Amino acid sequence: MKFTVEISVNVPLMYYDEEASAEGTIELTRQEVDTLVKLIRDTGETDADDMGLQDVDEALYDKLQEQCQSIANLAAELAYLEEGFDQQCDEYHEHPEETIEACEQDGSFKYEFNEADYLDDEGNLDEDAIWEAKEEAFESWLDDQRFSLEGEALRDFYYDVIGVGLNLDGCTFPDVDIVIPDEIIEMAQKTPPHKP
Questions:
Q1: d(CA 194, CA 8)
Q2: How far is CA 164 from CA 19, 78, 154, 157, 173, in A?
Q3: Where would I find the beta strands (DSSP E) of 13-159?
Q4: What is the per-residue pLDDT across 38-85, written as a single tens digit (0 to 9) for each?
Q5: DSSP label at 164?
Q6: CA separation (Å) from 73 to 2, 101, 119?
Q7: What pairs with residue 21 in β-bridges?
Q8: Whole-angstrom Cα distance, residue 97 to residue 103?
Q9: Is 12 helix (H, G, I), strand (E, B) or coil?
Q10: Could you count the other beta carbons within 10 Å of the beta carbon of residue 64?
Q11: How confident is the model at residue 164 (pLDDT cuts 50, 70, 90)?
């Protein structure tokens, strides 16, 4: 069974701390879900530590911890990538040709125009005007991608399309508490079926 959870972490960036969040998937077996539902009902708690999950099923506790940490790490990595992108913006604005050309070559960015719109008084193509329009279109496309993509898709966009360099060795990935999916909590709070 798959459950979507959102996890937020406090990420220490270069000049400030930022709260970052990411959505990810928690995968559990039916038996593991049943274990959580029973524990929530028995203890009245929805926090993994408060319900004593580690004592009851250490393997399930570790599995949840690992999956939650993975989602938290993605949130932190995205914050670092955003910071890296911001730092590289100055370099991009000095040499945008390389980035635009790379994105055109791999097919991620396409710019089409009507030549008739870019003819000068003598009927020749105005290459400077075409370039300015292409650069403006690229920046608009770039913003659209950054603000529409999420999670792993956004991470891959930064790495593979834009080529943001990030050395993860210098990054801090905060430890997180286990997040019990809301759907499981809702299951536990429903009245269990009556057994005759």
A1: 38
A2: 21, 11, 12, 9, 19
A3: 17-27
A4: 999 999 999 999 999 999 999 999 999 999 999 999 999 998 888 877
A5: -
A6: 19, 32, 51
A7: 8
A8: 10
A9: strand
A10: 24
A11: confident
Dihedral sign for Cα 162, 174, 65, 21, please.
negative
Query: With left for phi above 0 and alpha for psi between -120 and 50, is residue 25 left, alpha or beta?
Result: beta
| Cα 2 → chain centroid | 18
Q: Nearest to residue 160, comparing CAs of 148, 145, 143, 170?
A: 145
What token pair was written down for 177?
Answer: 């508490």
Name the token pair of 75. 């949130």
Q: What is the Cα–Cα distance from 94 to 109, expressed in whole angstroms? A: 19
Tally of CB atoms within 10 A around 50: 11
Task: Classify 7 as helix, strand or coil.
Answer: strand
pLDDT digits (tens, 9 = 90+) for 1-40: 999 999 998 887 877 788 888 999 999 999 999 999 999 9
Res. 89: pLDDT tops 70 = no
Token pair belonging to 68: 């939650």
**Six token digits for residue 152:** 């792993």
